[in-house]
Write a structure and sequence with these properties.
By secondary structure, this protein is an alpha+beta fold. The chain is built from three helices and ten strands; from the N terminus they run αβββββαββββαβ. The chain has two domains: about 50 residues; about 120 residues, Mog1/PsbP, alpha/beta/alpha sandwich (Protein Transport Mog1p, Chain A). The strands form two sheets. The chain has a seven-stranded antiparallel β-sheet. A hairpin with a 7-residue loop joins strand 3 and strand 4.
Length: about 170
């Protein structure tokens, strides 16, 4: 005749409400993370849009680099281009064009800790990492063979990956 009320019903309702609140909170956190990633991507795109482009038909490539950086071409080393941050001379990237036969010499000259496959300008190459703190000039090296030429990209800049990924190779 009398209905028996479960003694833990308030506890069960509290758990259900906490679970609902938890799902709502997770939804808003995920939404905020997606917005953060979208904003970060937009700022990175707008940052690289302000970059300059260097193109050399002689060397056979074009590359974009930060607007404040400077280009150096050594008259004695015509197959090498150096991009340098004038505010921090420790940040630089050099791009050299050489023969593919020298790839084994380059690989043997440095002690690399890691090697990854990377695609630069539509061509597959190797990204080599060196963790030697005393040798910052060869911390990151990308080797890409394109139409019988070996492109050797080396540097320590924070934007190394973005600069390397911006390279396009010109048809000769």
């Amino acid at each position: 005749m009398f209905r028996v009320i479960h003694p833990n019903r308030w506890f069960i309702w509290t758990l259900i409400l906490l679970l609902i609140a938890n799902f709502i909170l997770l939804f808003f956190i995920e939404k905020a993370l997606l917005e953060f990633e979208r904003d970060a991507l937009q700022s990175a795109i707008s940052y690289t849009r302000a970059w300059k482009t260097y193109r050399s038909d002689i060397l056979g490539f074009s590359v974009t680099y930060p607007q404040t950086w400077q280009i150096e071409i050594d008259p004695l080393e015509e197959n090498t281009l150096t991009l340098q941050n004038p505010e921090n001379f420790g940040e630089n990237i050099s791009i050299s064009v050489t023969t593919p036969e020298l790839e084994s010499v380059i690989r043997d000259s440095f002690g690399f800790d890691q090697e990854q496959k990377v695609t630069i300008g539509g061509y597959e190459g190797a990204l080599l990492h060196n963790s030697d703190e005393n040798d910052s000039a060869t911390r990151n090296i990308v080797l890409v063979e394109v139409e019988g030429q070996l492109f050797y990209i080396a540097g320590t800049a924070q934007v190394f990956d973005r600069v390397a990924q911006s390279m396009t190779f010109l048809q000769k």
